[in-house]
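Q: How do we represent a protein-ligand complex in a form that can be generated token by token?
A: Start from the inputs.
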Amino acid sequence: MPAQLIDGIALSQKLRAEIAARAAALTALGKQPGLAVIIVGDDPASHVYVRNKVKGCEDAGFYSLKEQYPADLSEAALLERIAALNADPAIHGILVQMPLPKHIDPHKVIEAISTKKDVDGYSVLSAGELMAGLDGFRPCTPYGCMKLIESTGVDLRGKHAVVIGRSNTVGKPMALLLLQANATVTICHSATPDLGLYTRQADIVVAATGRRNTLTADMVKPGAIVIDVGINRDEAGKLCGDVDFAGIKEVASHITPVPGGVGPMTITMLLMNTVEAAERT
Ligand code: NDP
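Then emit the structure tokens for the protein with NDP bound:
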């Protein structure tokens, strides 16, 4: 029987309705959730991402502040703006769209954002909170993957989860979230010699490599749940993920499509973190 699709669009819609209801309750108390998005320079893809984030905020009833600066903005000026937003009570979340122009140190910028407003969850302190199992903001993409996995109804306790990829924004936090949910976790990466050896033992595989066909049907245990984070293009220019969707859907129990799986969840979890930040103030 072919795998069941995990529909990221439908789950996003459901969660966004819940977020909008929470936002409305806060607004009624005079505490409308506010997200500030800063974009520096004119990278076209970044502008599309920012537009989608701003629209997501508006649809959820948030106050949305978009600050757009030319590519020659100085690092000092950007840090000054972040300090002002840290102090602004109307703003509960601050996001600086990456990548930044080369003369600006992204680490300095991320660390300048107050941990209370770090709704991207990228700062060292937020990463430490996740590591230590403390309340904090989880990076949006792995947080969204957890919601997709939960939506299958699986109990992760005692299950073996394999994460392919170890970036700070996806792979590592993904592994920690799975560990927190009591899965037994293996992390694989480009220096893993025989990927299939690990993935064939997995009840859940999360692929986050940015390489097409990292995972093929022969590498998947029958009945496994497969979450595909990757965003790639095939020879025809069509959007595809990291896994061989056509082959794996004949073996897995559940699989996320690309597009329509993990992608829509990322902004949803940004909104979730922002409403949470407002509730905590
Ligand atoms: P990075 O390039 O930062 O990390 C990729 C990871 O994959 C690295 O840890 C790398 O290993 C590992 N890797 C690369 N090739 C292989 C291989 N052949 N076998 C095993 N491991 C491998 O990417 P990100 O984590 O930022 O993103 C991963 C993918 O997810 C990208 O396609 C990105 O576009 C997508 N993405 C999608 C999002 C969404 O909203 N849907 C959001 C964020 C990312 P090593 O560390 O050894 O180099």
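Residues 141, 164-167, 169-171, 188-192, 195, 208-211, 214, 229-232, 262-263, 266 surround NDP (CB under 6 Å). Residues 30-116 form a domain with the Rossmann fold fold (CATH 3.40.50.10860).
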